[in-house]
Amino acid sequence: MDMTQYKALFLSESREYLRAISEQVVALEQSPSEPGAVDTLFRGAHSLKGMAASMEYGEVVVVAHSMEDLMARVRDGGLKFEAGVADLLLEGVDLIDAMLNDVEADRPVTPPPGDYAQRLAGYTPPPPRKKAEKAPPPPAAPASPEAEKAKEAPALDAGTVRVKTELLDHLINLTGELVTNKNRLLNVAREAGSQPLNDAVSETGKLLRALHDEVMKVRLMPFEAICDRFQRSVRSLAKKSGKEIQFEITGRDIGLDRGTLEQLVDPLNHILRNAVDHGMEESAERAAAGKPEKGVVRLCVSRDRDRIVISVSDDGRGMEPQRMIDAAIRKGVLTPEEGEFLSPRQALMLSCIPGFSTAREVTDVSGRGVGMDAVNAAIQKLGGTLEIESEPGVGSTFTLKLPMTIAIIHALVVQCGAVKGAVPVTAVLRTVELSRRQIETVGKRQMFQLDGETVPLLSLNRVLGLPLGRFPNGILPLFVTEAKGRRVGIVVDRLLGQHELFVKPFGRPLSRMAGLAGGATLGDGEIVTILDLADLL
Amino acid sequence: MIPERLLIFSAAGEEFALNLQEVCEVMEPQPSYPFAGAPPHYLGLINFHGNLTALVDLGMYLGKGGRGAPGKLLVLDTKLAHLALGVDGVSSIVSGETVTGEAPGEEPLIEARLETAAGTVRLLEVEALLRGLEEGLREAPPRPQP
Amino acid sequence: MATTVMIVDDSLFMRKMLRDILQEEGYLVTAEASDGEEAVRLYRECRPDLVTLDIVMPNKTGLEALQEIMAFDPQARVVMCSAIGQESFTATAMQTGARAFILKPFNPELVARVLKETAQG
User: Fold this and answer.
1) Given this model, what pLDDT does residue A368 score?
2) Domain that holds residue A185
3) What is residue A305's predicted lDDT score, i.e. its pLDDT?
4) Could C10 and A43 be called an inter-chain contact, meaning their C-beta atoms sit closer than 8 Å?
5) Which residue in the set A1, A9, A43 is minimally distant from C12, CB to CB?
6) Nearest chain B Cα to A467, which residue?
7) Is residue A151 pLDDT above 60, yes or no?
8) Class of C4-120 per CATH?
9) Does C13 lie at the interface with A, CB-CB under 8 angstroms?
């Protein structure tokens, strides 16, 4: 029998099982009294083994079989599920994952370490530590039958089909091209001065918008798809730092664009890492403050109309705005005068300035290199925003707001010299036409008054390395955006209005260029680049 | 290894070759749209069948010539990159079998010097070219003008 | 008329493979179930001539489903699918009324032979 035809299905289904296994392992560690989870784990390993045997991937069979046997010992009550078992199972998940990648790339499969099977077969739990016995964790509330059901991997119902992701991307591309073409037609209709043509094109535009929404829905994947990574990273961080942490995820079923989902893994992991490493106190410190010893970290996903809201909150020590300001002044990123004007909210956003960190020490796990600045940039690249709230002693919440879909955006098109660029409207607070005499010069900087606040001015031409504008009529067009937690007026040569753009990513070599988030074609065929202000400013 | 077929072209007065498989189209010059922040050898962006494609003046990038209007655009295989090279002109396509001599390139980005019926040509290494361009973009962030 | 079959397995991969083997042999796959509960429900609805029933499944194991199917239709022709190492389950299944069993990974010829015997027997 020719098995190659089953390879793609084997890979996708095996990965689903791996994901279910790592999720259940972490869930079991949090509440060990869940018989359903043990069964699911056992079944996952069993099914993986069966499929791999059919495909004749012997190495995968060996690992899955060892995992299945270990789970059988747990299920039959001979072995207690504890951290040692969890570690072995997660190691198995990683081994199989690596082998699946080999299979996918048509490489020879990396054999698992020879002793893996033996370690599982001969595994005995470590003797209980001499240390004072910890109080047993409170018994988990008995799960309702519905909740049990929800945990099972969703069965594929007969009304669904599997579609290759390239096909979806192609569909979206075509839809986007149609939108671009519609804009071209709209220009023609305007030039021809034909009202019927204009009406027909407008109607087509509405239909295209509906088509686009439907096509984008197909790309949606539940947040669930990336949950296991967070559970695993929080688990290992908590272990490394020796803190007791309860990690909760809600809103797993909320759908997000596949592309967005992938781009969210690193930023969210970083925020979670900060929460565990820096946000959360040691047990003793918590006890002294009258808090429960076990800290809680929550990851909540929800929908607010056409936006996705993701928040990470902890009940740790919180952040002190004044400490952030002091640190920023010490590091020279803020003058003491500027510091005085910052609101507490703005002060917290200081953590998003490149190089800024209030961590007093760098631990093995604190995520050197990427800081909150990288997180903020990644979120902005997705057309989203980041907000930080914190109360000293009570905890912090990081809230990400993201558009549901990313391919078609509304953007403000601006002209600087010979160059046209587009800024997503999500990054634009408002536009202003400023008369020269409204400009105040403070030291070397030019400022203007906006709603009673002094806002600095910056020339986009200067940022982009272009010749500066002249403004013969004395009016400076600008848009207001937020950078590093404060409002900034960005002066351009001309504001060309808001456009609906189909954003295309750049390929090599421009994909490596900082400050560009892709490009788009305007209705007249002209190409504009999407400016990534977070990167540029 | 000598490619099966070579596209021979000139840039800044010198003869170069590309593996024909790595080129997906030779185009007449067309309007490109400027974008900011890139080094001067980037002439702008063109729309190639829906792909936003960077147009680079090859002679200028290789440091061999000034910025003149290119005579032809060589669009690289879109699986490799979204890049078009502006060159002076294309002279011929020759079979790899007609190459009579091969010597090491001894220059960055040049894989080999090949002796062909059309004379000595430098075979460009596309991957090295792409890596070089990418590094150039990383090194040259938009420089604020004073 | 073609013999109708219901395939029960929680793995889509396994169902697809079995379906291909069975269709090649001229069977008509009229139902697929991905867990024990669905298997019992679909058996009542479709009354297939043959059932291939996996053992390890969520929401009722294959053995539990087998009991319910046999209670509903003592004439049901059920073939258990089991993996090596599940001999104890196989024995229980045969006592409960399963006609035969096939081993995973599937050998197409063997599967065809066992099903043919079960359909005729």
Assistant:
1) 38
2) 166-218
3) 65
4) yes
5) A9
6) B145
7) no
8) alpha beta
9) yes
